Each structure stands twice: as C-alpha cells, then as structure tokens.
Amino acid sequence: MLGRGLLVLYLSILVLLPIAALSSKAFSSGTNAFWHAISSPEAWAAIKLTVIASVIVVLVNAVFGTIIAWVLVRDEFPGKGIVNSIIDLPFALPTIVAGLVLLSLYGKNSPVGINVTFTRAAVVLALLFVTLPFVVRSVQPVMIDLDRSMEEAASSLGASNRTVLRRIVLPTLAPAILSGVALSFARAIGEYGSLVLITGNLPFKTEAGSVYIFGQIQDENLVAAAAVSVLLLLIALFVLGVLNLVQRRWSRHVV
Amino acid sequence: MSSSSGGTLTVGAKPSGRLTRRGRARGGEATTLGSSRGGRLALRTVALGYLAVLLGAPLVMIFYRTFEHGLAPVWNAVTAPNALHAMWLSLEIVLIVVPLNTIFGIGAAILLERGRMPGRTLFGLLIDMPFAISPVVVGLALVLVYGRAGWFGDELAAQGINIIFSVPGMVLATALVTLPFVVRETIPVLREMGTDSEQAAETLGARPWQTFWRITLPGIRWGVGYGVVLTTARALGEFGAVSIVSGRIEGQTQTLPLYVQDRFENFDTTGAYTAAVMLAVLALITLLAMNLLARRANKKGGR
C-alpha cells in the first residue's frame, strides 16, 4: 500500500504536474492567445516543417526499415551480426553527438563534397538518423515468425513475386511496420538535439518546432513556447492513437 | 501507444538469437520471396548501402576527424578542466537517476502486470508519455512547475531551494526522460514468467518480501538489466531537456553533451569532436552490453 502510494507520488511529481503546468500555461492568456501563438508566421513555418519532414522520414523508414529487416532475417553474409547490433546505435548515441557525427561527413569541408548544413535536407537527414531503428526493430521479430510455407505454396501455385509480396508478406508485416512508423513519427516530431548543430536553426527555413520552442523559452516568451509544445504533443498523441487503431483493426483482419 | 499489443515497445528490441531456416530454397527454384540470387543481392546492396551512407560512414568519419592531428590534442581536450567537470556531472546524474528509475520501474512493472488497481491504464499511459514528448517540452514543463515563474517558484525560493538552473532540475529532467525504459523492458519478462512460482512460494509460507527477493527478482533480472542499460545510455546522453533546465553554466551545470555543443559553438572543433567520441564510445559499450544481456535472456529461455 505504501509502495503503491510512493509510485503514484513519483509519477505525479515527474509527469503529471509538469504536463498540467504546461497545458495551463498554454491557455493562461485565453484561447485567443493560444491561437495567436501557434499561428504566428514563424511558429507556423516551424510546425509545418516539422510535420512535413516527419512524414517524409516516416515513409522512407517504412520502406528502408522493412528492407533492412528483411535482409537481416532472410539473408546471410559475413558481418551480419555486427550490422544487426549497429542498428541500435542511434538509440544509444546522444542526440547532440548524432548531429555532430552527420556534420563530420556531410558538413562543410565534406570529403565527399556534400554539404547539407543550413538546408532542409539536413533536417530530414538528422531525423532519418535518429529514427532508423524503430521500423527495423518492430518488423524483425514478426518476420522471423513469418510462415514461409505460405509463400512457398503461393509461388508453387504460380503467383509472381509481386503477388506474394502484396497478398501474403505485406499484410502480415503491416501492423509491425505501422507500429514502427508510429514510434518514428512521435520521435521525429519532438526531436531537438540532433538538429541543433547541423540545421543552423534559420527561422522560416530550417527551424523545426522544438527548436522554435527552445528559442521562445530563451526569450522568456513562455506562453508561446507552451502553446506550440501543446500542439506538437497533441499531434504526436493523435498520430500514435490513429495508427494504433488502424494497426489493431488490421491485425484482426489478417488473423 | 506501444503498450500491450504484441511485439511492441521496441526501443532496442532484443536481437533475436534464433537463426531461421535459411538457405532452404538455395539450389532449387525460388520458392520464397526474394530468395533468388539476384533478388537477394539487390536487397542486400540497398540495405547495406543505406546503412553505410546514414550510419557507418559518418561514424567512421567522426573518429577520423578526432584523431587526424594525433593523440596530443585529444588528450589535452579530455583533460581540460571544464571537460572533466562535465564528465563528473554527467556521471553524478546517472548515479542518481538510474537507481531511482530502476526501483520505480520494477515497482511500476509489478503494479501494472500483477496489480488490480483502478486507473491502471492511466498509470501506464503516463509512464509512456515521455516517448511522445519532445525533450525540449519536458524541460519547459519542469520550468513551469519548479522555475522562478513556475507553480512552486515562490515557495521554493522562500525555502532557498534551487531546482531549475541547478543539479536537482537536471536530475528531474533526466529521470522524466528515462522513466519508461525499465518498466517497459520488465513487463514482458514478468508476463512470461507467470505467477506459478510466486504462488507456490506464498503457499509454502513465504512473506511477500521473501517472494520478491527469492523468486520474482531473479526471474526478471535480465529484463531489468536491459532496461537499466537503456536508461543509463539515455541519461548520459540527454540533451534537450537538460539544456533548458540547466541554464548551461560553464563549469557548473554543463554535462558532457552540453559541453559538446558549447565547444562546437566556440569553434573548438577538437574539443567538440573529442567529447563526442567519448560519448560515442560509451554508446558502443552500451550496444555491447545490450547484446550480451539479450543473449543471456535468450539462453535463460526468456524469449
């Protein structure tokens, strides 16, 4: 009983109170002020950039994450174990280091002649880096359990590779891909550390939502910061919720 | 979000130890998708190419850039007073946060998996919140509660307690960001273990604490260990939230990741690269630990 109380207390101090304070600050000057804050041109540009970049990143992840998972499960080549372990590196690497790692190859003085600093491509690149493991790691276990006899049966009955992929493999993998996509999206929407060094944080150009919030905090403009924070949080929760629903319906459909 | 439905939380899902029935189609006609030689090679090239461009090459490059002028500048950068201070502060925060969240994580996992408390769903949802919140927003939310202009600002100031712009705030921020890891890694292990042994112990007259120490904890230790590794890695590397609540005061509230940014923005690239490489090496050690723990868990018949 005492233990339970302590757990709830810890959670309240750490999570509940701060979220309550954030929401109340966002609306502390009324709903008009809230709308005003999120529709200011700079805020809106930052939100738009974040959402569009996250969508692009999530689509790329869905395709490449699935291919990578496929190769890790079905293919054999020397060094596969190392490749498999290194996938998790973006989870283990501090985000600021992730930004610097990308900068060392794709910054100015790039040895390969690609300089993405201060461009929107840098935003996408950084987000791709930090979200790499999500789709791979949610698809991999499902793919291991995937029953190959269905594929064999379909193909021996004359189905083309494309048909097998569309009718058998993808429907089974779809819930796992979606779950990875949802986690990637939530992460991408809020990402900050990896963007700081490589994007230059130029308003209206490369300034992402979280970077905008940071700037507003520095300027002691806490209402605007809280308003954009609440909006980003709602977008993330909404997408997580919708994808969760779709995923559930889908898995029921397949099984 | 990633709670109950199968195959979820996958912040670092364990690399599965099992090898699949590979190569069955080899030699015969292609029977499973992508098992033709050409198809396999093409997919392999795409996957490895993508990983090399995004992950491998940049990683090699940062090590090269750090050491291209020899070891002396690196050594100087490591032993700079502010660098040493940042390392100690990062370590201090890890040493406070990891035990706190481990105890909370085990307790919360048992409560969520075994308990029948009303409001369990809400409890689980709150624990998952940090996955959906930007670190910057975490920092802001803490400022709004414990900062000067925050809810408890006046009371705390009257008591002479500083939370924001000092270590306690940084501990809070780090604890919040790393809250879900131990819980989410422990729950599946707990579920798989079942309650048979615990019930047996109870029937034989063991007290709750005895059951916990002798039966439950040994059963879940690899899952907990995995969560602890993830917590440690994230605590060492947390940047956004700590950046806001610390005030980034050089030599005082600067952790190692904040130091990386500080050096970079002051055009001290050697300092920035050196600190970054130290953190990267720690991340690689983390990966190694994750692998070992996953293997142990597999061998124990965990997953």
Q: Could you explain how this protein is built, in words?
A:
The complex is a heterodimer of chains A (255) and B (303). Chain A has one domain (2-254): MetI-like fold, CATH 1.10.3720.10. Chain A starts with a helix and ends with a helix. The model of chain A has no long low-confidence stretch (mean pLDDT 91). With 255 residues, chain A is mainly alpha-helical. Chain A has twelve helices and no strands. Chain B has 303 residues and is mainly α. Chain B folds into two domains: 35-68; 70-299, MetI-like (MetI-like fold), CATH 1.10.3720.10. Chain B has 13 helices and no strands. Chain B has helices at 37-67, 71-78, 81-114, 120-132, 135-146, 153-159, 167-177, 180-193, 196-203, 208-237, 240-246, 256-265, 269-299. The relative contact order of chain B is 0.14. Residues 1-30 of chain B have low confidence and may be disordered. Classes of the chains: A mainly alpha (255), B mainly alpha (303). Chains A and B meet through helix 1, helix 3, helix 4, helix 5 and helix 6 of A and helix 1, helix 3, helix 4, helix 5 and helix 7 of B.
Keywords:
heterodimer, A: 255 residues, mainly alpha, MetI-like fold, 12 helices, B: 303 residues, 71% helix, disordered N terminus
Topology overview:
The complex is a heterodimer of chains A (255) and B (303).
Chain A: H1 2-26, H2 30-39, H3 41-74, H4 80-86, H5 89-92, H6 95-106, H7 120-145, H8 148-156, H9 161-190, H10 193-199, H11 209-218, H12 222-254
Chain B: H1 37-67, H2 71-78, H3 81-114, H4 120-132, H5 135-146, H6 153-159, H7 167-177, H8 180-193, H9 196-203, H10 208-237, H11 240-246, H12 256-265, H13 269-299
Provide a quick synopsis of the model.
The complex is a heterodimer of chains A (255) and B (303). By secondary structure, chain A is mainly α. Chain A has 12 helices and no strands.
Distance between the termini of chain A: 41 Å
Provide mean pLDDT of chain B, rounded: 85
User: How large, in whole angstroms, is the Cα Rg of chain B?
Assistant: 23 Å
The profile of the biggest β sheet of chain B is: none
Describe the sheet with the most strands of chain A: none
Uncertain runs of chain B: 1-30
- Round the Cα radius of gyration of chain A to an integer and report it: 22 Å
| Count of strand segments of chain B | 0
